């Protein structure tokens, strides 16, 4: 028996996972048997240590079992959304060179799998549909092979970022880094067997990935997995904390806003049911914090981190709130502020680089320090304060990173547009919203409504500007940098269609 | 039905900023409604029309376009009047 078996056997009757609404559930004992059974099947199919395996599931138990099975084999998970775009799918297949794809029942692949480009002539690319029925039929005590003994440097997953600059990058998650981060964070947060995480984030995203899988497992906690956050989840939140006993919520600020909006609908009590809410990924406004904490009688614990660095700073339940800070520096994190004001981090939690992109990795990972791209400062007590971003390119809309430059490029391709500058401005719902400023090449030729229609046709939905403002010219410094403050004045007094 | 359809379009215009909102506008593809805006939409619709959308109908994917949402709301409004 190894650590996985022993952890599961400590309290085999304890619940590890519940799927809200479907009521499917897995105990720690079942988890062990299902994982070992699937690991045997994958081993028979030839999946071995170091192989990349794409996981395409919604928030569902098959994802969790599959990921644990890959850990047993020492294989590397590459989680992707089932509704991923064909372009992204092909990019990951070509760059990640996976051996196998495990998908949900009824999965419709977004494009063809060109196996020749992916695997060598001797091996064959495998696609398998994973269902609970099969998992239960294959349940077994023993693996037919020696389970992988993972070293700290071994990658366990490659998480593809949303790709704010250029193509999406695969962040290599190292076993040792992930384990160290979860160990420290979970202990500081007081995770134990009574902790039940309400997990509404997508499992293929770093937040959802962390909180549905190894973090709760390490502490004998349980996960209440819901479909990715949407109105129906927000509307039945009273059931999640009442009937299902969820007591810790993982959220981004816009979700809290939705829960507040739906609170009058709740039939059951929600006050005092949450021990705390772990909230990160986007700017948290103080009025939202106060309103949510009062109405739900709970505490919101802000945090700051990234897929590359995991948690850099966070609050614990015992830590008093400090105005303007995202929390105290994680104990094993060293933080250095560069001369330009950028936050650099050195810690045992850092990623293993971007997959097959050594040059891009070298731009942000230097001598063991990760350069976050964010600006900020540490106060005298070790609380971290964010001051903005070093690059104005990234807009953080509800935790999604969007490239302002990519939007500008599209706007510049529109006939009649001479210059464009897109900014992320503070927004009560999303943290930041997208505003695009456009200057015409010939006065009188541009119309805001037409430009908006053009943007909507040319850009993915999440990149649509909230507003396009036509200005006489984009104010820039001598070196061409956009002067934000001058554009903000234009937003207050838009000129309208000229 | 027409009153509700106009009301729905007014609310969608306010939330999305897309102008014009037509009955055949697709919620996701034309108006760019996301899950957070859908929550906002539900709250506004319930307050404006004094109705309650039941939890089973809170899945955005049930409504392809504005007309399908208006049709559902008209049905609720009619039933509510019937009960009254």
Report on the architecture of this protein.
- The complex is a heterodimer of chains A (498) and B (84).
- By secondary structure, chain A is of the alpha/beta class.
- Chain A folds into two domains: 3-383, 3-Layer(aba) Sandwich (Rossmann fold); 394-492, 2-Layer Sandwich (GMP Synthetase, Chain A, domain 3).
- Chain A has 17 helices and 25 strands.
- In chain A, strands 1, 2, 9, 10, 11, 12, 13, 14, 15, 16, 17, 18, 19 and 20 form a 14-stranded mixed sheet that branches.
- In chain A, strand 23 and strand 24 (431-440) form a beta hairpin.
- Chain A is globular.
- Mean pLDDT of chain A is 89; it is low at 494-498.
- Chain B is mainly alpha-helical and 84 residues long.
- Chain B has a single domain (2-83), classed as Non-ribosomal Peptide Synthetase Peptidyl Carrier Protein, Chain A (Orthogonal Bundle), CATH 1.10.1200.10.
- Chain B contains three helices and no strands.
- Chain B has helices at residues 2-16, 35-49, 66-83.
- Chain B is globular and about 30 Å long.
- Chain B starts with a helix and ends with a helix.
- The chains are: A alpha/beta (498), B mainly alpha (84).
- At the A-B interface, helix 10, helix 12 and helix 16 of A face helix 2 of B.
Outline:
Helices cover 31% and strands 27% of the residues of chain A. With 498 residues, chain A is an alpha/beta fold. In chain A, the strands form 5 sheets. In chain A, strands 1, 2, 9, 10, 11, 12, 13, 14, 15, 16, 17, 18, 19 and 20 form a 14-stranded mixed sheet that branches.
Task: Specify which chain pair forms the largest interface.
Answer: A-B, 26 and 21 residues
Output the CATH topology of the largest domain in chain A. Answer: Rossmann fold
The number of helical segments of chain A is 17
Rg of chain A, rounded, reads 24 Å
Task: Tell me what portion of residues of chain A adopts beta-strand conformation.
Answer: 25-35%
Q: Which stretches of chain B are low in confidence, meaning pLDDT under 50 for 5 or more residues running?
A: none
Largest sheet of chain B: none
How many strands, what sense, and barrel or not for the largest sheet of chain A? Answer: 14 strands, mixed
Please tell me the CATH architecture of the largest domain in chain A by its name: 3-Layer(aba) Sandwich
CATH class (first level) name of the largest domain in chain A: Alpha Beta
Q: What name is given to the CATH topology of chain B?
A: Non-ribosomal Peptide Synthetase Peptidyl Carrier Protein, Chain A
Name the CATH superfamily assignment of the largest domain in chain A. Answer: ANL, N-terminal domain
Task: Please give the alpha-carbon distance between the first and last residues of chain A.
Answer: 74 Å
Taken together, the total number of domains of chain B comes to: 1
Q: Strand tally of chain B, please?
A: 0
User: Which value, in Å, is the CA radius of gyration of chain B?
Assistant: 12 Å
Query: What is the straight-line distance between the termini of chain B?
Result: 18 Å
Mean pLDDT of chain A: 89
């Amino acid at each position: 028996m190894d650590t996985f078996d022993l952890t599961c056997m400590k309290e085999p009757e304890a619940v590890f996972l519940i799927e809200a609404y479907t009521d499917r559930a897995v105990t720690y004992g079942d988890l062990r048997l299902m994982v070992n059974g699937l690991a045997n099947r994958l081993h028979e199919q030839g999946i071995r240590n170091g192989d990349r395996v794409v996981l395409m599931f919604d928030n569902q138990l098959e994802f969790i079992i599959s990921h644990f099975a890959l850990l047993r084999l020492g294989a590397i998970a590459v989680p992707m959304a089932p509704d991923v775009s064909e372009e992204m799918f092909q990019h990951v297949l070509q760059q990640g060179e996976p051996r196998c794809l495990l998908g949900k029942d009824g999965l419709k692949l977004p494009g063809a799998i060109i196996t020749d480009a992916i695997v060598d002539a001797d091996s064959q690319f495998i696609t398998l549909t994973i269902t609970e029925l099969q998992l239960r039929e294959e349940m077994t005590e023993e693996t037919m092979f020696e389970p992988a003994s993972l070293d700290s440097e071994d990658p366990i997953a490659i998480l593809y970022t949303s790709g704010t600059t250029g193509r999406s990058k695969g962040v290599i998650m190292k076993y040792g880094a992930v384990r160290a981060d979860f160990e420290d964070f979970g202990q500081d947060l007081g995770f134990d067997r009574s902790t039940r995480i309400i997990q509404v984030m997508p499992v293929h995203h770093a937040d959802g990935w962390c909180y549905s899988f190894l973090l709760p497992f390490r502490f004998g906690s349980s996960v209440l997995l819901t479909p990715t956050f949407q109105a129906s989840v927000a509307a039945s939140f009273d059931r999640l904390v009442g009937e299902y006993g969820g007591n810790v919520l993982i959220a981004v600020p816009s979700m809290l806003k939705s829960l507040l909006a739906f609170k009058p609908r709740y039939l059951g009590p929600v006050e005092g049911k949450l021990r705390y809410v772990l909230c990160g990924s986007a700017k948290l406004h103080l009025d939202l914090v106060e309103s949510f904490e009062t109405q739900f009688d709970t505490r919101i614990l802000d945090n700051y981190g990234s897929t590359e660095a995991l948690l850099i700073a966070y609050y614990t339940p015992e830590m008093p709130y400090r105005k303007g800070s995202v929390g105290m520096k994680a104990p094993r994190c060293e933080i250095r502020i560069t001369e330009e004001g950028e936050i650099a981090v050195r810690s045992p939690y850092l990623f293993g680089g971007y997959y097959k992109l050594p040059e891009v990795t070298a731009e942000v990972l230097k001598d063991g320090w990760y350069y976050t791209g964010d600006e900020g400062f540490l106060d005298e007590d070790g609380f971290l304060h964010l001051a903005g971003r070093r690059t104005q390119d990234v807009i953080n809309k509800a935790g999604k990173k969007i490239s302002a430059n990519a939007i500008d490029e599209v706007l510049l391709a529109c006939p009649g547009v001479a210059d464009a500058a897109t900014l992320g401005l503070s927004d009560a719902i999303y943290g930041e919203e997208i505003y695009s400023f456009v200057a015409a090449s010939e006065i009188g030729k541009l119309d805001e409504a037409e430009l908006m229609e053009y943007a909507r046709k040319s850009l993915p939905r999440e990149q649509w500007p909230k507003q396009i403002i036509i200005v006489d010219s984009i104010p820039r410094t001598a070196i061409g940098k956009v002067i934000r403050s001058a554009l903000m004045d234009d937003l207050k007094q838009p000129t309208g269609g000229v | 039905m027409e009153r509700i359809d106009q009301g729905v379009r007014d609310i969608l215009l306010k939330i999305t900023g897309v102008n014009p909102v037509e009955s055949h506008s697709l919620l996701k593809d034309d108006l760019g409604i996301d899950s957070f805006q859908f929550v906002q939409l539900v709250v506004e619709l319930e307050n404006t029309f004094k109705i309650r959308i039941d939890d089973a109908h809170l899945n955005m994917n049930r409504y392809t376009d504005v007309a399908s949402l208006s049709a559902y709301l008209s049905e609720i409004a009619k039933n509510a009047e019937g009960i009254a």
